[in-house]
Each structure stands twice: as C-alpha cells, then as structure tokens.
Amino acid sequence: MDDRPLLQRQKAFTLIELMISLLVLLVLVAVAVPSFTDLLARNRLSGQANELLSVIQLARSEAIKQNQTIRLCKANAELNDCSAASGSWQGWLVTDTASPVIVIRAGRFDERLIISAAFTELRFSGQGLIRSQTNQPLNSSFSLCADGPAFADNGRTLTFLSGGRSSIQLSQCGS
C-alpha cells in the first residue's frame, strides 16, 4: 500500500500512456475521415436527387393546378430564363409558357455534382403528363454524378415516365 499522504499522490497520465492514447486516436481518425468524406458526398448526391424529384413534382402539380402547360428547364447563369446550351445542368427553372415568361420557382444545383440529361426542357400538360418540346410523350432520365469522389454508387439516376411516375436508382458514374 502507498504510504504517501493523499495530497501527494499523482493523478495524471504518464508520458507513455499519453502517447499510446494519441496513437490510438490518430489511427481512428485516419480510418474515419475517408469514410466520413464518402458519407458527405453520398448525402449531397441523394439530397440533390431528392430535390430534383421534388422540382419535377412541383412542376407537375403547378400544371395540374393552373390547367396549363408548365416548363421545367435548364436555367441560364442568372436563373431568369431557360438555356438551350448543351452540357451539365447548373440550375433549373419552373416557368409558364406565356410571353413574357413568368418564373414560378428557380434554383441551382450543387457545383460539386454533374447533372446531365438528353434534353434541356420538360413540359407538363394541364393533365400532368410529361412532354418534350415537340409535345411528344417523354420517358427519360436525369443522371447525377459526384464530381471527383470514387466510391461505390457515386451516381443517381432519376427516371421519369410521361405519365408522371418518377423514381431514383443508385448508379455508378464512369471515371
């Protein structure tokens, strides 16, 4: 038993105990950080896919509510008009088809994602049906890819049918 008075007993870590604790902490951090980065990228991707799905549903419900054609289109840089330029979608607009165009809602996508589609505009009829710019039934999809991270299922495909049914599937984007 220790004969020293209670006030003189040390209640601290030794240097070796401290170094071992720091080493264990560093190993845990080294393992956790890459997983956390992938988790953030997956959440960002899923969030944007869900936002795009809700925008499609908003445009469809506006078309039904107003009983007129409503457009969901690729936005220009200022988010005030539709863009016919090819390439990734940086933003979106929900507008009517009147002249001048009335913007119902607009938004930007996360710049760390690549959002692409074979079209620049969707039209929703007053019955809620999805049509192309030439008023033909449109069954197509959006492709969302994480720019950079190389984890499994680094993409999402938002598929929609002309009748309005939509779904999101996991996908793998090419390197």
Automatic annotation (TrEMBL):
The lineage of its organism: Bacteria, Pseudomonadati, Pseudomonadota, Gammaproteobacteria, Chromatiales. The keyword DNA-binding does not apply. It is found in: Cell inner membrane. Belongs to the GSP H family. The chain crosses the membrane at residues 12-36. Pfam families: GspH, N_methyl. This is Type II secretion system protein H. Residues 48-159 form the General secretion pathway GspH domain. It is a single-pass membrane protein. Keywords: Cell inner membrane, Cell membrane, Membrane, Methylation, Transmembrane, Transmembrane helix. The keyword Protein biosynthesis does not apply. Its main location: membrane. It comes from the Bacteria.
